[in-house]
Amino acid sequence: MRGAVLYGRGDIRFEQRETPKIIEPTDAVIRMAATCVCGSDLWPYRGLQPLNGPTPMGHEYCGFVEEVGSAVSSVKPGQFVVGSFATSDNTCPHCRYGYQSSCMHREFITRAQAPFLRVPLADGTLVPTPGVPSDGLVPSLLTTSDVLGTGWFAAEAANVKPGSTVVVVGDGAVGLLAVLSAKQMGAGRIIAMSRHESRQKLAREFGATEIVTERGEEGTVRIKDLTKGIGADSVLECVGTQESMMQAIRSARAGGFVSYVGVPHGVELDGTELFFSHVHLHGGPAPVRRYLPELIDLVLNEKINPGRVFDLTLPLDQVAQGYRAMDERRAIKALLRP
Ligand SMILES: [Zn+2]
Ligand SMILES: [Zn+2]
Question: In three state form, how does the secondary structure of the chain look?
Answer without folding.
Answer: CEEEEEEECCEEEEEECCCCCCCCCCCEEEEEEEEECCHHHHHHHCCCCCCCCCEECCCCEEEEEEEECCCCCCCCCCCEEEECCECCCCCCHHHHCCCHHHCCCCCECCCCCCCEEEECCHHHHEEECCCCCCHHHHHHHHHCCCHHHHHHHHHHHCCCCCCCEEEEECCCHHHHHHHHHHHHCCCCEEEEECCCHHHHHHHHHHCCCEEECCCHHHHHHHHHHHCCCCCEEEEEECCCCHHHHHHHHHHEEEEEEEEECCCCCCCCCCHHHHHHHCCEEEECCCCHHHHHHHHHHHHHCCCCCHHHHCCEEEEHHHHHHHHHHHHCCCCCCEEEEC
